[in-house]
UniProtKB/TrEMBL annotation:
Superkingdom of origin: Bacteria
Protein name: M24 family metallopeptidase
Cross-referenced SUPFAM superfamilies: Creatinase/aminopeptidase, Creatinase/prolidase N-terminal domain
Pfam families xrefs: Creatinase_N, Peptidase_M24
Residue span(s) of domain Peptidase M24: 141-341
Coiled coil: none
Database matches in InterPro entries: Creatin/AminoP/Spt16_N, Creatinase/aminopeptidase-like, Creatinase_N, Pept_M24, Peptidase_M24B
Source species of the chain: Streptomyces ardesiacus
Residues annotated as domain Creatinase N-terminal: 8-131
Amino acid sequence: MDRTAYEAAALGFAGVLVTPGPDLVWLCGYRPTATAARLTLLVLTANAQPRLLVPALDRPTAEAAPGAGAVRVFDWWEGQDAYAAAAGLLRPHGRYAVSDATWALHVLCLQKSLPLAVFQPLSAVLPMRRAVKDEHEVARLAAAAAAADAAYEEVLGLRFAGRSERELAADLAGLLRGPGRSRVDFTVVGAGPHAADPRHRPGDRIVGDGDMVVLDFGGLRDGYGFDTARTVHVGEPTDEERRVHATVRAAQRSAFAAVRPGASCQEVDRAARAVLEEAGHAGHGVHRTGHGVGVTTHEPPYLMEGEEQPLEPGMCFSIEPGIHLPDRFGVRIEDVVTCTEDGGRRLNTASHELVVVH
């Protein structure tokens, strides 16, 4: 909380305003149970104790949050103007960075209470605020990746042929939610021509012999994300399918080898694309090679052309090149990786082999 406040102050902001969402959880560990329509507001300013304004009925929950010992809690009661209460914690002429998850209703009502104040999106002010993880965060991400790997290993033992994508996706979600495991945000199973669609959602198509199958799954474990993809084949693959899979594996390795402190995000993206282009698949990749993973499964930094943000030790992100041949088949391999002083470290360790399933 202090680091966020001081970084904003250095950019000329009076403070940072955070409402329920991933930023609030990351900063002070508070997950309110009340509807987001009732104002909950964390106020961070340099040289002052963080202040948390909550509905009066939520005060006991707020005071039990992991970061509550570092926060001064205020409350407002039903019938009271919550925005007037919030205005009392702010500077009338201040410029504030507001968390992206904040409802427009709250921003507009704060603007009405403080007509001379200026509000800007936090992601535009401090886009990398959550990007560099400490050792405890990296450990949680590694545990989430290990749980995802374990679920993948289990799903390989299931029968694929003759079952629908939707059934297999449900099985995978069940394995991910197993004892002590995870909250599942998505389980993508794309078979045959559906594997060529990176936005595919599982449907009623029956998986058959000869299908390439992309498995892409993500969610949270202990508050930190996992996002993993592997590609399997029902029965023996053709030579072409093996070549395409090998190309994606090589692209993944090339991108991983490019991870080092000071390398730009687009350098990692270019390393993967160079392999795809050399193999004649320049137009068959995905829109970016990766994205940050933390308290959400998709956040900065983004590994894509034009992103010159340099990598720093502690940044954690996916590396997920793919080849998608429309109406035919597709291949995707995705790991979560962290940048260290010595280069990249894979948090996922499941094999990249093209596994034959039945």
